[in-house]
Design goal:
It is found in: Cytoplasm. By secondary structure, the chain is an all-alpha fold. It has one domain: Glutathione S-transferase Yfyf (Class Pi), Chain A, domain 2 (Up-down Bundle), CATH 1.20.1050.10. The chain has five helices and no strands.
Length: 140
Amino acid sequence: LTVLVSPHLAGGETEEEILRVDMLENQIMDFRMSLVMVCYNPDFEKLKPGYLEQLPGKLKLFSNFLGDRKWFAGEKLTFVDFLMFDVLEQNRIFEPKCLEPFKNLKDFMDRFGKVAAYMKSSRFLKMPINNKMAKWGNKK
């Protein structure tokens, strides 16, 4: 993805922004995979409560990392913001109220104006998120 992204969105401009992008890209992948591992597990129903129990703690870490910044690297949009938007939206579909305690994460999601408007339209399909082998997110 990094190679395909416009240089203006790539990975930050300052050393701090570049480091924030590098760290966050890997954290987002770990976060995404934690949901994937639950959704594709045959014991999905047994694992779901544990995932939901630890979700607020993970979201708090991302909320703290974002802080009062507009975007995760700083004041300019980077590719990790799109990755984060996607994984936060998947978690919000999984547990609709999960972002409620985190105003800065909700504000972050709202900054994607046209995307957010599209997602509220009848043209947007929330599901499927996963393929047919998953125990959750695999049906329309």
